[in-house]
Write a structure and sequence with these properties.
Layout lengths: L2 E4 L18 E2 L1 H6 L3 E4 L9 H10 L3 E7 L7 H8 L3 E2 L4 E15 L5 E7 L2 E5 L5 E5 L5 E7 L8 E2 L6 H13 L1
Antiparallel strand pairs: 1-2, 1-7, 3-8, 4-10, 5-11, 6-7, 6-8, 6-9, 6-10
Length: 179
């Protein structure tokens, strides 16, 4: 089951948990109010999983691939890890389904504080277009994930500040409406 918490201010190893002391947990409901959608699926049977098939149909996720993030599997590994960890947003939703391994997605809350979401095998997350976020491996240094898109994939990340994009403005309106 996914776990989330507010991060400490440490600038040390990005792959460490970075929990505040005491821990300040974040619920799935709090994530939902940020537009973050979480699902738990059967990663052992992702190729034939009827739940995944139904999600793809219902959400119109027509394109997918699988990426492995590990020093022996990903070209330009160290550069990619740094790029993934730069705070950015996308103009489309970001959908990731963890098939093996584990890692962290960090998202900003409505007060601009970092929330760390620990993802492991079987976890699927949808980050809404316009949310500032970043990704890093955890201390296991390995994840295999399915990436899903509506239509053709768009890989463009817009590093912060990117507040003038319509996707960001629409996201900020969503947050205001949730308040």
């Amino acid at each position: 089951m996914v776990e989330a918490w507010y991060m400490d201010e440490s600038q040390e190893d990005q792959r460490a948990p970075h929990r505040q002391r005491p821990n300040h947990a974040v619920s799935l409901e709090q994530l939902r109010r940020l537009g973050v959608v979480y699902r738990r699926l059967d990663a052992d049977n992702y190729e034939t999983d009827p739940c995944l098939k139904e999600i793809r149909r219902a959400e119109n996720y027509s394109w997918m691939d699988i990426v492995t993030i590990h020093k022996d599997k990903l070209p330009n590994y160290e550069e990619k890890i740094k790029t993934f960890y730069e705070e950015h947003l996308h103009l489309d939703d970001e959908i990731r389904y963890i098939l093996e391994g584990s890692g962290y997605f960090d998202v900003r809350d409505k007060d601009d504080k970092w929330i760390r979401i620990s993802m492991e095998k079987g976890d699927m997350i949808t980050l809404p277009a316009g949310i500032y976020h970043r990704f890093t491996l955890d201390e296991n240094n390995y994840v295999k994930a399915m990436r899903l898109f509506v239509g053709e994939p768009v890989w463009t990340a817009y590093n912060r500040p990117a507040d003038d994009f319509p996707a960001r403005k629409q996201y900020m309106k969503f947050l205001a409406d949730e308040a």
